Amino acid sequence: MTDDDERLLTELLEGKHRALARVISKIENHSPGYRDLVSQLHAHTGDADVIGITGSPGAGKSTLVDKLAKTYRDRGHTVGVIAIDPSSPFTGGAVLGDRIRMASNVGDMDVFFRSMSARGSLGGLSTATTDAVRALDAFGKDKIIIETVGAGQNEIDIVKTADTVAVLVPPGSGDDIQMLKAGILEIADVFVVNKADKDGADMTVTELREMIMVASDAPDTGHHGPDAMADYDLDLDGTGEDDWTPPIVETVATDAAGVDDLLETFDDHVSWLAETGELQNSARKRYAEEIRTLLREDTAELLADELEARGGLEAYVDAVVAKESDPYTIADEVLEPFETCLGELRAEGRATVGNDGQPN
Question: Domain of life here (predicted)?
Answer without folding.
Answer: Archaea
